């Protein structure tokens, strides 16, 4: 049966061991992207989603959230951005509308509200896919559930006063949802830096513990930095050609924002305006939080990366004789007098803490030897060493854009080709065995 004719209903339990050629786990942009290409090939499949399709964009994003890459980079398969502002940055409602249009265009064979609890190899080949709505058999399994599953909150959080509200970045919505008083934001990656800015612009007293996140300019020499880097083919660089190789997958993303048309996020400027900055959070002594004396080093390193990216753009402009505004180098607008080592929570009036230190992957439901010692999948372009197991939608699966709207289509197309080849080879083998028998 062609995939386009499947109309599963999660409200009715399917018979045990119904067979499908391909099971896709996860109904986000990755899962629907591979569905798009499988449907083109007439490959029967089901997409399992334990919540609703693309739910993380609504449930894990704050109200003022916007893209940090320009809209023209939204290139989901069959559904490129075609709005009026290609060089702008969609805000949350616009993103949800864009994704709703993608879902409608794909019309995937989707089972929502169906959790996959275990995938295991059958002795005779193929896989058992155990779900909350019954068990399926599948020849191929595409894990498209991403890598951001379990919010990271440190154990020291358990010892903090109960009077302090503690939430993870995925739970933050807006400044008014927090109690009156000062706010501590822990982590300065994209979420931490943007949430700290959101609170700061609302007039809240913000304390920010920063880590090793780099930063980049929003605009440089007359264009968005993303546009320059795209012209320089940076986003086409595969992971094996990156100077860090697979180590780039562990990197924290550069902080920048698309808010109000796009601008830099300069933590030094925030400090001038009253935000309190600290180094890496290390502990709690019963009264005060303690910090590593790493603030100055972290700020300097973030600026080094910022200027380094701009210098690479300078070289590209010079090498190609491009007419552009003159170059510049960022000079710090503020320097810490000292690295603060502690923060007395009561004395500072801290009433809420937002943990912005990321997520851990959780693939415990997948019973297959495809993980390294840190629990991360081992693969090449999403293809694992175990026949029939694939990954899609992970950061730097193949290129920088793999976990984003810009690159997931290319990865999904590649995997769809591999799946088609594998299914055909399996069919040919069965035909040969039948003929021999």
Textual characterization of the structure:
The protein has helices at residues 29-40, 56-59, 92-106, 190-201, 225-231, 267-272, 295-319, 345-348, 408-436, and strands at residues 18-25, 45-49, 75-76, 79-80, 110-112, 116-121, 127-131, 134-143, 150-151, 165-168, 182-186, 206-209, 219-220, 223-224, 276-278, 281-284, 288-291, 342-344, 350-355, 359-360, 366-367, 389-391. The protein is an alpha/beta fold and 437 residues long. It has 2 domains: 3-149 and 361-436, FAD/NAD(P)-binding domain; 151-355, FAD/NAD(P)-binding domain, CATH 3.50.50. The strands form 6 sheets. Strands 1, 2, 5, 6, 7, 8, 21 and 22 form an 8-stranded mixed β-sheet that branches. Strands 10-19-11-12-15 form a 5-stranded parallel β-sheet. 40% of the residues are buried.
Brief rundown of the structure:
Pfam families: Pyr_redox_3 (PF13738). The protein has 437 residues and is α/β, with parallel strands linked by helices.
